[in-house]
Task: structure prediction
Amino acid sequence: MNEEEKQLHWLVRPSTIRKLWIGSSIILALTVLTQTVIYVKGYFGVDAWFGFGAVYGFVSCLLMVLVAKLLGFFLKRPENYYDESEQPVNNQNSKSALEEDNNAI
Result:
């Protein structure tokens, strides 16, 4: 491990990320392989298939991410949405008050 990598937080280091991926993959594979030893009673027929829980979880997660992206597309606001300089000032009194505030600064 070089000096630059030591300064990074341990969760951001490339070596740690690789170890976490490998460890998580092993745990997930062992979890799916335990279905060969432990009998899973399916209530609907489909849910008794080998690896159904893993596939169902992956597809559910994928759909949640896609729905979130779609919602983000519709709910997205422009970058300057809350910018004060672009709000129209209709009242003459508030315009003069704004000028007084600017002069006070």
Observations:
- The chain has one domain: 3-77.
- Residues 3-77 form one domain.
